[in-house]
Write a structure and sequence with these properties.
The chain has 69 residues and is mainly α. The chain has helices at 4-18, 22-25, 30-44, 46-67. The protein is 81% helix and 0% strand.
Length: 69
């Protein structure tokens, strides 16, 4: 079961994805969609971007520590 942090991040990312304008979303797949969402999320949700980056850095550090134990 996802933690509250994971559920929060997933909900915000889903909101950003599903809020796409139909004209913009049509035809965007793979890397093009990823690039579009990256810019959109960074511009629309700067605090979310910072939160996600910090959260992922924390997870990476925990995984590295677990590997060296």
């Amino acid at each position: 079961m996802p933690t509250i942090n994971e559920a929060y991040i997933n909900a915000l990312l889903a909101d950003a994805t599903y809020a796409l304008d139909e004209n913009v979303a049509n035809g965007l797949t793979g890397t093009a969609l990823s690039d579009y969402l990256d810019v959109r999320i960074k511009n629309s949700y700067p605090k979310l971007t910072c939160y996600c980056r910090r959260y992922n850095e924390l997870l990476s550090k925990k995984e590295l520590k677990a590997q060296h134990v």
